[in-house]
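User: Predict the full complex structure for these chains.
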Amino acid sequence: MILAILPLLVPLTTALLCVITQSSARVQRVISVCGSFVLLVSAMALLWQVSVEDTVTLTAGNWPLPFGIEFTADRLGSALVLIAAIMVTITVLWQASDADIAPSTPGLHPLLHGLTAGAGAAFLAADLFNLYVWFEVALICSLGLLVQGGTLRQLDAALKYFAMNLVGTLLLLTAVALLYAATGQLNFTAIGEAAARLETPLMLPLIGLLVLAFLIKAAAFPFFAWLPASYHTLPGPVLALFSALLSKIGICALIRTLGGTFQPAPELLFTMLGWIALLSMLTGVLGAAYHWDMRRILAFHSISQVGYMLLAIALASRAGNAAAIFFALHHSLVKAGLFLAAALIYRQTGHYDLRRIGGLYAAKPFLATLFLLFALSLVGIPPLSGFWGKYLIVRESLVQGEYLWAGVALFVGALTFYSMLKIWLEAFWKPHPDQSWQPPVATRLTPAYASVGVLAFLTLWMGLFPEKIVVFVTNAANSLHGVSP
Amino acid sequence: MIWAVALAIGMVITAGTYLALSRDLLRCLIGLAVLGNGINLLLFTAGRLGSRVPPIIVEQETILQNAANALPQALVLTAIVISFALLCFSLVLAVRLVQVAGSDDVTTLRSAEPPATDAVKPALEDGP
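Assistant: Here is the predicted structure of the two-chain assembly.
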């Protein structure tokens, strides 16, 4: 059914049209906005169809499986596609405001849609090699976005991002080649069936290599170096899209392979994944505690939050996978909201560094409230979405008797609170270091506030009415396991 | 035959890794490209070596007899195109970076992440 590849076709078409019309910035922007709304509608249609039919599948050329190249939209993939559609719409609409949108180059809109196409297709690919190809599309587009400004810092960041991520994709390609040599299949279902017949000493290194590649993509300890090296050089709105999509591609692939294709995967992998998760949570949050640039703080928090998702995957149960999916959905919205709130702070004060700003609570109380909402949701204060994400993870760890893992998850939550408190006290509460500072008068921020408002509404909604989403993610984890919901 | 190819792939990957660990920016990028080519060879070998018969079903037959595996060849073509595009991008990026930074020693390229001057607080940076 064509619906399954619309999340790939719509952004690709939009990107091409944006390239053709790049001589006129106005036409390009109109096409970009229209394209993102079409994507939003098709993602909603896909999600609705999936909730009725369980999976929507398209096999290229109607070839019988396992020979045809397959796209399968299940609950996990289509929910993440909807998040991607929401985020690209918000990022494109944000461009109508004047908050941290420089440099507005002709390459910006095509690359934004190209990144969305790569991420969307990677969420839906049911074929290992196809997954690799869409990983690369997302990588190339994100590299393009990194160098749009062309400053020394951005070029340097792009180089480090390139080198680390290239090693990741090369490892992924190696794993694809070796898995093909061992099983003779590339389709996820067929690989899973063939792998179940192989011996553990052969499967452990092969799946381990695949997991390693996904961990590099997801920015887990100790492979996260590319993330704090590059994220802080990007403008806020692009950064919001990056944080919502890039690490989620790796997380989605991990949930799909470990929670679906290769289950039951070797026990050793999950134990190691659990320790990697703990170290990611701790190093991420400690890195954030050191920094004073808001973008760097939030980038390090991404690593720590990826640790929570890995912990949920490492619990190796259906409830654990459901918690990981819930956390991924929550984190995409909240982290993007925080980056956008930081971009609004930058528009008001001209700095991302907390030591140069202050006094915003008196000047902009509404912005302060919005920031506080996202910050408390990231920490996990009820009744916001982060509370339910952490509750599901901690409860499942306690059920499985992993008291240390649950304890570290709660401790990292406290450190996250410290770091959010730091931003709150420095940016909003303390007086501005320059006594004569006044917020700028002529601003065009309505589209920006509207974008952040949508995200704030979504995190509130996820927190106040979590039952529907918990049922949805439980069904998603069940259908990955091959249990019909 | 397969052992000779395996040895060759091992040598290419070793050379690529060695170059990629170099301090010289250009050598580092060429090392990554060589590493990518070694892995492309691995992907190619994943589909068995040996046969040179094209995978075409001859008349009055219904199955392929002892033909070469066409799938890894298709995969490796895709992988080559992607790695070539990335190599081109990285070379342009490197040239521009060397021009702006005035150095091709990767240990001195620290402008995105300046070395810490203070154990407690990071240095104040200017501008975005």
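Chain A has a mean pLDDT of 92.
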